[in-house]
Amino acid sequence: MKGSIDTTLFRRHARSVKAHIMLAGIASACILALPAQAQSDRMAPIATPAQPNAIELGTGPLPGAKASESWHSQYGSRFTRNVTVATLTPFLPDPAKANGTAVVVAPGGGFTTLSMENEGWDVAKALAAKGVAAFVLKYRLNQTPQDLAGYEQQQKERFAAAAPRPGANPSAMMANLAPQIADARAAFALIRKRAAEWHVDPNRVGMVGFSAGAMLTMATTLEGKDAKPAFIGNIYGPLIPMTVPADAPPMFVALAADDPLFGNSGTGLIDSWRAAKRPVEFHLYEQGGHGFGMYPKETTSTGWFEAFASWMRMHGWLKPAA
């Protein structure tokens, strides 16, 4: 099937693929396993923040959902869980700086939570400052217990159970992301429909994702049909090999070597893009861990955003559209 993951190489990298399938448990559990140095390191419930510009995408409520959307803070940032209705929030640049390029921003969180601030709003604001119209995608999530204590316990159990499962079906893996892919497709369709209003070139709409959001970015690229991102950014997602379509978009990848999830999973995705003779840029930072996003850190991984912007500039996406 066009765009599906290569099955032979898939088995060879079963641990990375299992991380892909089980990230709902691993990513959150990995964060929860970190030692709490301050109260802000702990999850704390917060009121749903105002999102006046959020636009419902029309993909419908998550089938069978019983828990309702809730928000919490951690590490000085805001997260949401149990998203049942997908939205898209525009962050538009100053018209005097707008260049016609747009980016769909997909936060991560193991498909059970979304890092809306660190990997969403802050990224979008930084892109808008470069003249790029940015759109934060709040996609539907797998259901978790309504209370935070129950959620934490669930993630710890999933993390403990996350062992490699050789021979997993790659098509089934993509099928597990059907609601999220539908949300991403709807985001691209909405941006192109309102391109004139938002001063966007319909042919210059890219996507950047973080961790699970990076997985969604890859799934949207390979299985998103009419979405067809003009370029993509994979920020600390798994680098498993894939069968690359002939028209695969240019790709930017950033990962820390000490990433506890994907730092030792090889560079199969990079090799796949190069073998297909498609443009790819790869930044492997010595330190940064997982989930560095827009958090200011002493590590060079903090420079990923400016590197991404420089890559966009090199390809002409920061120049005004013709």
Automatic annotation (TrEMBL):
Residues 100-320 form the Dienelactone hydrolase domain. Pfam families: DLH. The keyword Signal applies. GO terms for molecular function: hydrolase activity. Gene3D superfamilies: alpha/beta hydrolase. Residues 1-38 form the signal peptide. The keyword Repeat does not apply. Keywords: Hydrolase, Signal. This is Esterase.
